[in-house]
């Protein structure tokens, strides 16, 4: 029994650091995991020796090179991600703008795959980045069919603050989800920054559920000028990936969708 508890603690540490954007101290880690500091110190030391964690000069803890190697090993064996990366790269070339595949992760938007076209340098995203749901157009597609009371309960009010500083009304957010369901795509303007637009289309599994989105980010003026063309390119890419998933299983996507019908992890 004690061994299982130790294993759980190790997994808790790794999973917590996966969501951190910067190194954390041992004390902060112990507090976040509600774990005795002596246990955290011991486990962190073991994980550092094995290369799963690394310490900076100030004692900050972050994931080590072994965690990165594990991710590479997963990528080699994950056939859908390989196909998806090819589609994202092609769409980025066709559109000339930043292209992403996004999935839901603990009631946030996770950038899973990204490629940069010929767009301006400031419009770039990083794989593994997470964003509040309401400031992403993709959320409108992923939350189709999710009960509104569940959405309200799991998205903090502060997450509705847009790049302009204004708070988006919850009812407006729900109306936009309903609009995305009717249109089969969603275009957002000014959510992240005032003059930045996004467009997205759903990637569906064999059951017709949106398990991810194929989306682009670009200056709003360019989106306005090329809207029909860009939506057509996105639809073709998303349909190619949805067709693949009609004959294959993608555990990450199915998990992302199913977890939207559960409450957010503490």
UniProtKB/TrEMBL annotation:
Which keywords annotate this record? DNA-binding, Transcription, Transcription regulation
Q: Which GO terms describe its biological process?
A: negative regulation of DNA-templated transcription
- Superkingdom of this protein's organism: Bacteria
Q: Which InterPro entries match?
A: GAF-like_dom_sf (IPR029016), HTH_MetabolicPath_Reg (IPR050707), Tscrpt_reg_IclR_C (IPR014757), Tscrpt_reg_IclR_N (IPR005471), WH-like_DNA-bd_sf (IPR036388), WH_DNA-bd_sf (IPR036390)
Q: Where is the HTH iclR-type domain?
A: 4-65
Q: Name one Pfam family in it.
A: IclR_C
Any one Gene Ontology MF annotation carried by this entry is: DNA binding
Coiled-coil ranges (or none): none
Q: Does the keyword NADP apply?
A: no
Give start and end of each IclR-ED domain. 66-247
What is this protein identified as? Helix-turn-helix domain-containing protein
Organism per entry: Neoaquamicrobium microcysteis
């Amino acid at each position: 029994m004690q061994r299982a508890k130790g294993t759980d603690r190790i997994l808790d540490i790794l999973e917590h650091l996966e969501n951190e954007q910067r190194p954390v101290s041992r004390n902060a880690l112990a507090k976040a995991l509600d774990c005795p500091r002596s246990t955290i110190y011991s486990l962190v030391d073991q994980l550092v020796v094995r290369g799963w964690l690394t310490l900076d000069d100030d004692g900050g803890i972050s994931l080590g090179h072994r965690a990165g190697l594990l991710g590479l090993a997963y990528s080699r064996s994950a056939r859908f991600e390989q196909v998806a990366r090819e589609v994202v790269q092609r769409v980025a070339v066709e559109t000339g703008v930043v292209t992403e595949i996004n999935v839901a992760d603990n009631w946030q938007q996770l950038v899973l795959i990204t490629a940069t076209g010929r767009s301006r340098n400031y419009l770039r995203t990083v794989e593994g980045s997470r964003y509040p749901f309401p400031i992403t157009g993709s959320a409108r597609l992923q939350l189709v069919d999710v009960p509104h009371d569940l959405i309200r309960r799991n998205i903090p009010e502060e997450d509705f603050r847009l790049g302009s500083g204004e708070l988006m009304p919850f009812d407006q957010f729900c109306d936009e989800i309903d609009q995305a369901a009717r249109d089969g795509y969603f275009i957002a303007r000014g959510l992240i920054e005032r003059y930045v637009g996004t467009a997205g289309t759903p990637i569906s599994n064999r059951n017709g559920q949106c398990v991810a989105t194929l989306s682009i980010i670009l200056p709003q003026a360019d989106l306005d000028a090329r809207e029909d063309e860009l939506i057509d390119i996105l639809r073709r890419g998303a349909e190619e990936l949805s067709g693949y998933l009609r004959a294959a299983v993608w555990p990450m996507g199915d998990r992302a969708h199913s977890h939207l019908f559960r409450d957010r992890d503490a």
